[in-house]
Specification:
With about 300 residues, the chain is of the alpha+beta class. The protein has six helices and 13 strands. The chain binds zinc ion (2 copies).
Length: about 300
């Protein structure tokens, strides 16, 4: 029997990292085929609902502490702690709404702004803590991606050490700047502005699917301006980020796909270009991916861009 290979397969290298992805569209699945993967478990008493939140865990609120719209609480079971010399850090949970079952992707732009403003407040606060050099804001949404509660929430992880992957990216970006005299991300933005991977833009923010995307329907949200972290964004830029998040997460929610998003922020590196990586998690990496570090993505980013533009 002859081997039937995907003639459209293509090995792509990341923009500037030594990372390769095989884009293999013949293996493509439509989003609706994977909805079954993202079922949710019925909860018992929700510890993130206004009446049940443990008062002594609360660290910050948008709205009053009693009538909050967004709440920051300490993670009750953190992997890191300020008391721990070996695993120094702080972990907080951001409760994105007081309404149980109300998803971030279904919120209004104003509601998403409240969540972003909380990220700004907490990043400000946590970056002042001695020895904290890395602040990650992230969200696991949906079963396979790891969320265990039904109440919309994201997390902040602040630690001493920058994870190797992030450090490597910062290092490579710096190297690019020295060599080319420009910010690598701004050069990427210029390239993707008119590419088939472009999704959306306004005057402050651009959304596109990355050229060598690792996950099905992976999408990045970039402010045009070189802002080191979320606290440096202007009010108007934050509004644009909220608009972009609504577009992207709303679309992902329509298909009930689990997803993660990540905002990596280094404190000592003051020359980062802040951006948000959104990674739907319906592509389950198998042997080749885990063993050889070679990732196969069966949804090309060009197709993913059409999905976000409603042109699929
Ligand atoms: Zn709840
Ligand atoms: Zn930049």
């Amino acid at each position: 029997m002859p081997i039937i290979y995907d003639k459209k397969s293509e090995v792509r290298k990341d923009y500037f990292l030594e990372r390769y992805v095989i884009i293999s569209p013949a293996r493509m699945k439509r989003p609706k085929d994977v909805v079954e993967n993202s079922h949710r478990q019925p909860g018992q008493k929700c510890v993130l609902c206004p009446n049940n939140v443990e008062q002594d865990l609360i660290v910050d609120s948008i709205g009053s502490k009693k009538n909050w719209r967004v709440l920051a609480i300490l993670n009750k079971f953190p992997a890191v702690a300020r008391e721990s010399a070996k695993a120094y850090g702080v972990q907080e949970v951001i409760i994105e709404t007081n309404r149980h079952g109300h998803e971030l992707g279904d919120m209004t732009q104003t509601e998403i702004m409240d969540v972003l403003n909380m990220y700004v407040k907490r990043t400000n606060k946590l970056s002042q803590i001695k020895d904290i050099d890395y602040i990650l804001i992230f969200k696991n949404n949906g079963g396979p991606a790891g969320a265990s509660l039904l109440h919309a929430h994201s997390q902040i992880f602040a630690a001493k050490k920058i994870p190797p992957d992030v450090f490597h990216e910062l290092d490579k970006a710096q190297e690019y700047k020295i060599k080319n005299g420009s910010c690598v991300y701004e050069d990427i933005i210029k390239r993707e502005m008119k590419s088939p991977r472009f999704v959306w833009k306004d005057k402050n923010v651009i959304v596109f699917c990355p050229y060598a995307s690792m996950y099905h329907y992976e999408v990045w949200i970039f402010p045009f301006a070189h802002r080191d972290n979320i606290t440096n964004l202007t009010e108007d830029e934050l509004k644009s980020v909220a608009k972009a998040m609504k577009l992207v997460l709303g679309k992902i929610n329509q298909y009930n796909l689990p997803y993660n998003f990540f905002m990596h922020q280094s404190i000592s590196d003051e020359d980062q270009h802040f951006y948000i990586k959104v990674q739907p998690r319906e592509s389950i990496w198998a042997g080749l991916e885990l063993g050889a570090g070679m990732i196969i993505n069966s949804v090309s980013p060009e197709r993913a861009a059409k999905f976000y533009q409603n042109k699929k």
